[in-house]
Fold this protein.
Amino acid sequence: MGYNNTVAIISNSEFTIQELKSMLVLLRDIDQVVSIDYYDAEDIIKQSRPNVIILHATDNDKNCIRLLKKIRMNQKTKDLPVLLYADYCSTDYIVEAFDNGISDIISTPLKDYELVIRVIWAIQKNEIYSIKETEDKFLSELGIIDPKTGFYKEEFSLKFLESVIKQSKAERQKSCLILIKIAPAIDVEIDKDAFAGALKSSIRINDTIAMKDENTYYVFLSRAKLNGVYSIYERLLSKLGSMTAISASVVEIQDELFDDIINVLEFSINKAPKNGEIAVVQRQDFLNMYKNEEKEELEIAKILNNKAVANDSPVQRTVKKEETEEDKVNLGLKIMQEKVKEIEKKGGLKKVHNISNAENEKEIDERNAILYKQAYAKKLSMIIEPMLEKYAGKLQSQYKLLDANISVNVDKTFMKLDKDDIKLDFEMDYDGLKTIKFNLSVSALGTEIETDEFEMDVMEFDSRKLAVILDTMIEEYKNYLSEN
């Protein structure tokens, strides 16, 4: 009997291979586990095409990254799920691995049940991808999606989005729709192929991209909240660099009309800064959008102030318009009539027309607060926690009986080190808005020797800055340990 799934372990360490194999015995009997060394890996993977690869990297081994790039460059293996088992690897190395196509990371200390769960997840992901690949090929043959990019073509985009959003609402799923517009940041032509590749590699398998026009794209994220959107947007910016400017707006889909969702994204993207914050649509933006249309295009004031006008035929109010313009205005009036009725029922009509500057500023602050929290939460999991564990682990390997205590959460994060009653306390306090506060202290026998406090903007904080802080702090702490 043949095997259903094959798990390939790539490592030059026999100890690691046996350790991983002993944990993977919890897989089904019909699943096979094979081991390969780095030198034979590329040829064997091409021939056998396993369902999932566990790639072992230790001490920032560049051979691992080179092999990963070869796997991703090969047409037959480019979509295989690859789990990185990182052993004593830096955060920068892990980020580089993600940029080159790692599907997931297995962290140490390794737990057998966690490894099995990650492998099963990767197998399922591979199966989902195979099904989607077949569907995309079929849609490509029908001319619905672009065979080169895999994006839905312009003429089918809105129909597709309306369908998936309707399904998402029916299943009461959390989902988001992003509108992304690109432009050259400097006087150079936009590399559309590079952008398409960066966009595809920034989203998940179940997410979908549809073209609005040659420079504007919709991205539908199924089963996603705003924090997932920010992660994708930041990943896209990092892949494109400074050669391309991006504006983006996003709406978390709830019970709004489909046409409202599409219109408010276009309305909001005009307020979004290039390569800056993504414009997050709030409830008020739906009302503000129609308030602007009232002045500029639809003349909704007539509806609000004169009920007789609302009873008139829309065609009569668009005399001497072209047929396409009539359709556009009729649709806008219909949407607006429904919106006016909804507002009147809730008694909120006056609020629509009397939005103070203070309220607008409050909305902007609330939107920024969401972005700051999302940025900090991501950096907490991808940068801060791994680096604290790495530094504490290195110190414990150098100094016996050194006690290390690490706690990581959004409000307060700390690392406490203690050896022979010489203590180092490192704390990061986050106010939930823009500022991270750092508190450092070294004490001996209960008496403080050194203290330091400073602040940093959450958007400016990155792995390099944290590394500088930790390097300086640890070296100072080592001085007191050696003196002792």
Remarks:
- The radius of gyration is 27 Å.
